[in-house]
Amino acid sequence: MKDFILNSIETASVTSRPALQQLQTAFGGTLPNIARAMSTSSVLIDSLVALFGKIHGGSFSEPQIQVVLLTDAVANRASWAVAFHSFLALQAGLASEDVEAIRNGRAPAEAKLGALSTLATALIEKRGHITEADGQDFLAQGFGRDHLLEVIAIVAASTITNYTASVTEPPLETEFQPYAWTAPSV
């Protein structure tokens, strides 16, 4: 549905403007097209901003968060989000080999990042019904049960943006175009 309006802060509803302002600040003055599309619903954009703040203030590093977000974008086949999170993952210091692995449906080689990616994939593909082994494999990498539950919050935020991107089909910004991605045929 490409007929969604990409609001600016000035054209968004009064109720969506504070969330857009927060996101613009968080992204260094840039307002991603996905946020502009989301602002059509203040409930959606406000929900994302609240969750976004919790996630980025949680116990995971930014590269770890980006592993989960990029993994989810691939699992959800969300092309806009894959490009966006490829860009952000590289900016956060994730190795280009790890970004490419995730974009190609594989886990990063480093054990902890691999465990994050594998758990995120399992949560998406199994709709939260992970097995005991899925959970134990994650915990075996030194993560706690609190971390496992925190990954669910990251997956929730990612799902909001992935689904919104799939529904609204925002154009890919110029700076993310080098990371354009098309889901493989099923």
Automatic annotation (TrEMBL):
<protein>
    <submittedName>
        <fullName>Carboxymuconolactone decarboxylase family protein</fullName>
    </submittedName>
</protein>
<dbReference type="InterPro" id="IPR029032">
    <property type="entry name" value="AhpD-like"/>
</dbReference>
